[in-house]
């Protein structure tokens, strides 16, 4: 979502009582963080893979240092939003698809911002319901290797398995995640690699927006 789109969204009566700070890069936010006590962090994920990976790396790092800041992710579409919800072990306050209509996007943000620092119950319920569909250690390893650019034969060599076994694990992962292409699987691999592996002890995606 563009800066103009966010400004228009937060100019609406239901959101205009929030003070909006827009940052085009992470360094600008880090400097502002020393002077401003931000209430909520909204990351608008980039459609470009490399930029998205960088965004996810930032949220991973922030999750360990700024637990008091509410964390909301604006995903590119419904599939990406579902993958983030499914794969993120870090307790996020919300994941919203930018493909929603302006009216629905506004409603989602009003609800999430109104929850202050309480974790979204729906997100937690979704996490617990998904436990029996989580990826196996081998499936997770395959996704991480894919995210680093390894081919199936190279992954088979790294894991000391035959290629047919690796392909079977790959298709199992695709079925669990509800994706039907290698592109979707790479999206999942990036999310899995760059979101926190656990809820941090000191718990907070490319154009960041901070409230």
From TrEMBL:
<dbReference type="InterPro" id="IPR039420">
    <property type="entry name" value="WalR-like"/>
</dbReference>
<dbReference type="GO" id="GO:0006355">
    <property type="term" value="P:regulation of DNA-templated transcription"/>
</dbReference>
<dbReference type="GO" id="GO:0003677">
    <property type="term" value="F:DNA binding"/>
</dbReference>
<dbReference type="InterPro" id="IPR016032">
    <property type="entry name" value="Sig_transdc_resp-reg_C-effctor"/>
</dbReference>
<dbReference type="InterPro" id="IPR000792">
    <property type="entry name" value="Tscrpt_reg_LuxR_C"/>
</dbReference>
<protein>
    <submittedName>
        <fullName>DNA-binding transcriptional activator BglJ</fullName>
    </submittedName>
</protein>
<keyword id="KW-0238">DNA-binding</keyword>
<dbReference type="Pfam" id="PF00196">
    <property type="entry name" value="GerE"/>
</dbReference>
<dbReference type="InterPro" id="IPR036388">
    <property type="entry name" value="WH-like_DNA-bd_sf"/>
</dbReference>
<feature type="domain" description="HTH luxR-type">
    <location>
        <begin position="128"/>
        <end position="193"/>
    </location>
</feature>
């Amino acid at each position: 979502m563009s800066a103009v789109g966010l400004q228009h969204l937060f100019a609406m009566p239901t959101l205009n009582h929030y003070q909006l700070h827009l940052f085009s890069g992470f360094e600008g936010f880090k400097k502002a963080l020393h002077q401003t006590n931000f209430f909520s962090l909204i990351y608008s994920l980039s459609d470009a893979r490399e930029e998205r990976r960088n965004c996810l790396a930032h949220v991973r790092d922030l999750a360990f240092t700024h637990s008091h800041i509410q964390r909301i992710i604006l995903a590119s579409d419904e599939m990406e939003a579902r993958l983030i919800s499914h794969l993120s072990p870090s307790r996020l306050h919300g994941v919203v698809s930018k493909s929603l209509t302006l009216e629905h996007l506004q409603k989602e943000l009003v609800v999430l911002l109104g929850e202050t620092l309480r974790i979204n119950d729906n997100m937690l319920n979704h996490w617990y319901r998904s436990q029996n569909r989580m990826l196996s250690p081998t499936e997770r390893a395959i996704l991480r290797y894919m995210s680093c650019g390894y081919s199936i034969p190279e992954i088979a060599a790294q894991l000391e398995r035959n290629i047919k076994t690796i392909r079977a694990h790959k298709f199992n992962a695709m079925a669990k995640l509800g994706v039907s292409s290698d592109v979707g699987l790479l999206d999942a691999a990036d999310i899995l690699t760059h979101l926190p592996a656990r809820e941090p002890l000191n718990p907070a995606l490319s154009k960041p927006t901070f409230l």
